Amino acid sequence: MTEPSGETAPEAPEPTADAPEEAAPDATPGAAADAPGPGASDGPAGDGPAGDDEATDGEAGDAGEDDTEAEADAAGTDAADGEAPEAGAAATPDAPDVSEAQAELAAQRELQARIAARKAEKDGTVASGGKLSGTAADLLAAVRAMEGGATSGDAFFEAPEPAPRRAAPDAAPAMTVRPPVPAQTSAAPAPATTAAVREVLAKGGAPEALAGQVAAALGEGAAAALGEDPWQLLAVPGVRPEQADGFARALLGAACGPGDPRRTVALTVWLLERAAAQGHTALEIQAVRAGLAEHAVPDPDEAVETAVSEAAVLVFQEEETPEEEPDADGEEAPDASERAAAEEPASPVLLGLDRYALAEESLADGLARLVRTATAQSWEGPELVQAAGAHGLVLHTGGEASRAEPVALAAAARERGLRALVAVHGDAGRRATGAAPEDVVTVAGLLSGTAGPGRDEEGALALDLLAVLDAPQLDVETAAALVESLPDGCRLVLSGDPEVLGAPGPGRVFADALAARVCPRIASRLPDPGPLGELVSGIGVGELNQVAAPGKEVVIVPVRDAGEAVHRTVQLVADSVPRAIGVPADQTQVITVGHGGSAGTRALNAALKQRLNPGPGRFGGYDPGDRVAYAPAPGRTVTGTVLSADAEGLRLRCADDERVVPKERVETTLRHGWALTAHQAAGARWPAVVVVLPGDAAGGLSRPWVYTAFGRAERHLSVVHGVDQALARAVAEGVAPERTTRLRPLLEALLATPEE
């Protein structure tokens, strides 16, 4: 059963196995592949990390994590970690202020609505209906034509060039930070709507506790919609097809079957939503058909056609280069090589949901707009500075040391009188830049208006240059909202390490932009220093090297099983690392593969709380002094410490800020945070890191996972090693699964030069 989001009920710490000796960090440093180990044994039965891990946090899973969808039954199913709270869990009307999370989500919804409105003006609406005539017939013809290679999907989903936008301001007024504007948050479902839904759920034998989530997902007419189409229950996160099937049978009886069009359409959408949780913005049509067949759909081809005709999903195909037609007076027939090229199979047909299609198209349009509207200038300085002066979009790659380069670029731009800003993925990344606090903001704070410059009447940010660090962590919707907010002529620099784990949400924005080759790509020459830099750099090229660590920068602690792994981890954090390395426990971060399993985040956090901050969990499972991981919005994790609780909620100290988590959101957005997953830790660094690799974690390892986890350490890395040779194999061979996206061909079509 998948971990509900932000499970915060107090967990009884499991007794750890006694160890014959202390795991002091004086073990022989070296690569994990050379660590002595008697052979890793699987931990106790339970949810293994590979099956209950980052993918359940609204993040794309690592290798071996394809089956991480929620296994919870319909009773009490919660959203996955990091997802936005349901409308039913919104703040009560008497709340005095709008929280930062609510303001951020509302701002993102406003931007997405504006993007959708612009696309609607360009594309128009798609008619829907059950009968295959008119537009529906055209859509079905599109599917068949594209599968046969006769035409391209763009012929049916072609968008004109974006309308010209305002010119960039000539002057560069001083940047001012405006106070956040209270946002209009989504209202909770009306009591009458929830009551009506509760009646329908009870009639179908589904838990009435789902009424609020169903009403929030389906809107005012939720009860009627659910009564007519019981498979709409799949719109609630965590509900599985077999549960929706049982609910439909209870309501409809013999009137429903596995081929019911309502069922097949809902299943098609559900498959694409599940793929989005794994990082895809679209799926090949054959993969969708195979998924439908696995759920007993009798005719997957017809099911896909019905979903397309109902406009529940969209169909795409990469545009093919048109062949030149012979002149009227006749030309030589194409030679054998040309005929062979013409006979190559057409690019795959893709199916996608409109929200991700709109985001990718808007992002591609926005990046193309920045490229075309930037005025080329000659800037003296390093390679990155020169490229930013001459181009509207620049990609910058490198390790942790390279973060100083875009920060220096922004400083140089400010010296030229430009309004320049640096944005990072999370609060922890701000400290690592070394820049003044007013010059660095988080992407979330910039979009929500709680940080950064003000906006003009069209919603554009008052910026001339924006450098975004941790760019691989941008999902497609966040990136689209960010680019849409930049004015014409603004320069955008996307900087990051392409070897780290990808974005927690759908899309691979940074990787697609790099692959498209439509703008300058500047590779940093700054190496990460010391033994840790040498170790991580080797992992990036597939080598797990033994490194000399005279200052105990890298220590391997072999363990036999998961119980010993938990015991050794607590020992390292509480005793060994503070004594031998000089890093206190509150500056040491534990990273493990997943939330479940006998050495996942739940088990480790329970053991660490018992040792470091024991208490009854009097504030919803938390005590003052507890370290926590707070997910204010999908894909974002903020670490902090519990200060106190009052009528407004739980008060946290996160970096230099104090935040309040409303009491109704504590359960869905908060976890204990002594131990995190690698996805949650991406974009942040700590003085000391303990990476825990129990025997049952081997299936969840990949090279990007190891690279990301090991790279979070600044001074010291301890590896609690119980996977034997699986770690070396993961580094050498464990490439993370590719994500299916459309951004690269969209960028190539918009920005490819004639010679390309």
Polypeptide structure, described:
By secondary structure, the chain is α/β, with parallel strands linked by helices. Helices cover 35% and strands 12% of the residues. The strands form four sheets. It has a six-stranded parallel β-sheet with strand order 6-5-7-8-4-9, with helices on both faces. A hairpin with a 2-residue loop joins strand 14 (649-654) and strand 15 (657-662). Helix 1 (100-123) crosses helix 16 (476-484), helix 7 packs across helix 9 (300-309) and helix 18 (530-540) runs antiparallel to helix 23. It is globular. Mean pLDDT is 78; it is low at 1-96, 124-136, 151-186 and 321-330.
Which key phrases capture this entry?
5-stranded parallel sheet, 25 helices, 756 residues, single chain, disordered N terminus
Count the helices. How many? Answer: 25
The backbone outline, from C-alpha atoms, is globular
Mean pLDDT: 78
Instruction: Quote the beta fraction.
Output: 5-15%
Helix content: 25-40%
Strand order of the largest sheet: 6-5-7-8-4-9
**Which regions are unreliable across 5 or more consecutive residues at pLDDT < 50?**
1-96, 124-136, 151-186, 321-330
What is the β-strand count? 19
Walk me through the topology.
Layout: H1 100-123, H2 135-147, H3 191-203, H4 211-218, H5 222-228, H6 241-252, H7 261-277, E1 283-284, H8 285-294, H9 300-309, E2 314-317, H10 336-342, E3 349-352, H11 354-373, H12 383-390, E4 393-397, H13 404-415, E5 420-424, H14 427-433, E6 440-442, H15 443-448, E7 465-468, H16 476-484, E8 491-496, H17 509-516, E9 521-523, H18 530-540, E10 554-558, H19 562-580, E11 588-592, H20 601-612, E12 627-630, E13 638-645, E14 649-654, E15 657-662, H21 666-669, E16 670-672, E17 675-677, H22 678-681, E18 686-693, H23 703-710, E19 713-721, H24 726-733, H25 743-751
Parallel strand pairs: 4-8, 4-9, 5-6, 5-7, 7-8, 10-19, 11-17, 11-18, 18-19
Antiparallel strand pairs: 1-3, 2-3, 12-13, 12-16, 13-14, 14-15
Helix pairs in contact: 1-11, 1-16, 2-9, 3-4, 3-5, 4-5, 7-9, 8-9, 11-16, 11-25, 17-25, 18-23, 19-20, 23-24
